[in-house]
Amino acid sequence: MSDVIHIEARFRDNGEILPLVFIWEERRFTALALGRQWQKGPSRHFLVMTSREQVFEITYNEDDGNWRMVRSPVEFERGRQVV
């Protein structure tokens, strides 16, 4: 999966990025908590927990400025590996 998503995020002066809200499959999700974050090439990966206690993996590509959905709760449940 690598769907482009729309997101509201805060970009801080120190380089920190805080995803706040994202829209995926025409649904709006509020990020209540951020988990692990890591860099892989030009993409910054974030594990985000929503108000429904669902975990998503989203990425921000620093080269093109696009945000993408990498793993949804369904894929976490299936134990799908990060590609």
Fold and architecture overview:
By secondary structure, the protein is mainly β. The protein has one domain. Helices cover 7% and strands 61% of the residues. It contains one helix and six strands; from the N terminus they run E-E-E-E-E-E-H. It has a six-stranded antiparallel beta barrel with strand order 1-2-3-4-5-6. The longest helix is centred in the C-terminal third of the chain and has 6 residues. The model has no long low-confidence stretch (mean pLDDT 89).
Low-confidence spans: pLDDT under 50, at least 5 residues? none
Number of strands: 6
Mean pLDDT: 89
Order of helices and strands: EEEEEEH
Indicate the structural class: mainly beta
Main sheet strand line-up:
1-2-3-4-5-6
Shape: globular
In percent, how much strand structure appears in the residues?
A: over 45%
Query: Sheet with the most strands?
Result: 6 strands, antiparallel, barrel
Considering DSSP H and I runs of 4 or more, what fraction of the residues is helical? under 10%
Q: For the record, give the distance between the C-alpha atoms at the N and C termini, rounded to a whole number.
A: 9 Å
Work out the helix count: 1
